[in-house]
Amino acid sequence: MMLKDSNSNIHNNGNKDSDNSSNKEIILELSKELVDANIVSDIRYILEQKILKITFSNSYNNETLSIQGDVKKWFTWTSRIESSIKKRMPKLNNTHRLLIETTISNNIDLLLDSVDNQSKKLKKSNQGQGEEQEQVKKILII
Predict the structure, then answer these.
(1) What burial letters (b/e) apply to 56-79, b meaning 16+ CB within 10 Å?
(2) DSSP alpha helices (H): ranges in 31-107?
(3) Domain spans of the chain?
(4) pLDDT tens track for 52-71
(5) What is the pLDDT of residue 105?
(6) Strand 40-46 and strand 25-27: pairing?
(7) How many CA atoms lie within 13 A of 10 on its CB side?
């Protein structure tokens, strides 16, 4: 769903399973409050790099904030998110910062599922490569 505002474009994807075609980014579902406040236009998590990207609205000069962190280390990661937002976006008031943090928290299941799925795919891929290598070794030994 795309909501248009005279000040900025806000992208709010209502499909919680959405991500890009290569499954390397997870687009978080923005809360209605966050959309209505016109704070951010997009929040996504880049799986391979373990980076949360927050793209702010025109009201905040379309600033992009990238925060490194592992979703599986939730409390450490959320502390890093809070301190990064406070440091890089001093104009952002506490209420708006909390809306962002709450939106991220509300998407924790989506994030954890995606991280787990990526780990399973990577493990399966590595096992497949190992099996191929074993077969090659067996052929070389015989």
Answers:
(1) bbebbeeeebebebebeeeeebbe
(2) 32-36, 74-88, 94-106
(3) 2-141
(4) 999 999 999 999 999 999 88
(5) 93
(6) antiparallel
(7) 23
